[in-house]
Prior knowledge:
Layout: H1 2-28, E1 33-34, E2 37-38, H2 39-66
Antiparallel strand pairs: 1-2
Helix pairs in contact: 1-2
Amino acid sequence: MDRLLVVAGRALGIIGLLICLAAGLYRLAGHYHLGGFQLVTLLQAGVAGLVGGSFLILWGLSAKSGA
């Protein structure tokens, strides 16, 4: 279970980072929308992925050290 939390956290963090990078690069290119969404919305979704991934990794690590 602990391993699953850490792996899920890493995956969610990587996905969040890719979304943030895509939103940032498109915004620097002068675009405001990507796939029907405003880039600010995609950036917030990427930050939410990073925060969620960090939470899962911390939860997995604390459960591992607490046992």
